[in-house]
Design brief:
Elements: E1 10-14, H1 19-33, E2 39-43, H2 53-70
Parallel strand pairs: 1-2
Length: about 80
């Protein structure tokens, strides 16, 4: 399957971090880039470590879109 790299979706993939380190890294990245909700994060797991990068990106971004759509609007 060919994936489109020309996207506005943003994803940070982390490997080998403890949960505390991952949370600190996510906060630091969001602060440094000025992004909040439009940035997705993923950690490697025993389940996804064998996936291709494109499979992981597709899965995480789809999940991120679904979760973002469920959030109440701030109108």
């Amino acid at each position: 399957m060919k994936h489109d790299l020309n996207t506005t979706d943003k994803l940070v993939l982390m490997h080998g971090l403890t949960p505390d380190e991952a949370l600190k890294a996510m906060r630091a990245v969001k602060t440094a880039l000025g992004f909040t909700d439009e940035l997705a994060f993923a950690l490697t797991t025993e389940h996804n470590i064998e996936w291709t990068v494109s499979e992981l990106v597709e899965h995480v971004l789809e999940e991120h879109r679904e979760l973002s759509a469920r959030r109440p609007s701030e109108d």
